[in-house]
Amino acid sequence: MDIDITLNGTERTFEAQRSDSLLDLLRRNGYTGTKRGCDTGNCGFCTVAIDGEPALSCVKPVATIDGTEIETIESLGTQDDLHPVQEAFVDNAALQCGFCIPGMIMRSRSLLVENPDPTEKEIREALSGNLCRCTGYEKIIDAVQDAAGRMGEEGVAADGGLVRGEGE
Ligand code: FES
Ligand code: FES
Questions:
Q1: Which residue's CA is minimally distant from atom 3 of ligand 1?
Q2: d(CA 34, ligand 1 centre) in Å
Q3: What class has domain 84-154?
Q4: Cβ-contact 130, 107 below 8 angstroms
Q5: From the CB of 100, is ligand 2 less than 6 Å away?
Q6: Could you tell me the distance, in angstroms and rounded to a whole number, from the CA of residue 167 to the centre of ligand 1?
């Protein structure tokens, strides 16, 4: 079957098996920033955004995503030009092995677009489905609080991207 989606801002058509998940489709086509952990909807490592909402790609059948807009971690910054949420994770040393981090960042970005100034409790609730086996979570919470300030300073559009001309 063919699946038509807008992936990281570009309209694309992918071939897929009916039994594929969105995570299968992404990773098979080189979008390996989205990680496969449990593959059962329990760890958050595979978090992407579908039509602006955070979603677990491992339990999303491809048949249900036709016509949607998908954003993966590859849609954010680059190695030389990080997104503010990515910068905050690096500067707060909020990662160790890094395996959970793409999902954490995608979930955090969605939170901050919806709620630019979340309380610590709101951050913990938002990230409650994203597990991390390394950091103990404290630095991740610090990073999200820091990212909230950075996104405010840099002028972040409603879709989580940077507003041109601001923060440049
Ligand atoms: S790999 Fe999707 S929730 Fe764990
Ligand atoms: S940094 Fe290793 S799982 Fe989170």
A1: 41
A2: 10
A3: mainly alpha
A4: yes
A5: yes
A6: 34
Q: Which ligand is nearest to the CA of 23?
A: 1
Cβ of 39 less than 6 Å from ligand 1:
yes
| Whether the domain at 2-75 and the domain at 84-154 fall into the same CATH topology | no
Convert the pLDDT of each residue in 89-112 to its tens digit: 999 999 999 999 999 999 999 999
CB 72 within 8 A of CB 26: yes
pLDDT, tens digit, for every residue of 17-32?
999 999 999 999 999 9
Where along the chain do its domains lie? 2-75, 84-154
* Degrees, nearest 5: CA angle 105-143-8: 20
Contacts of 79 (CB under 8 A, 6+ apart): none
Measure CA of the first residue to CA of the last residue in the chain; give whole Å: 43
CATH level 3 topology of 2-75: Ubiquitin-like (UB roll) (3.10.20)
Q: What is the pLDDT of residues 115-142, one digit of tens each?
A: 999 999 999 999 999 999 999 999 999 9
| Residues 39 and 20 sit within 8 Å (Cβ to Cβ) | no
Atom of ligand 2 nearest to the CA of 98: 1
Give phi and psi for 94, each to the nearest 5: -90, 20
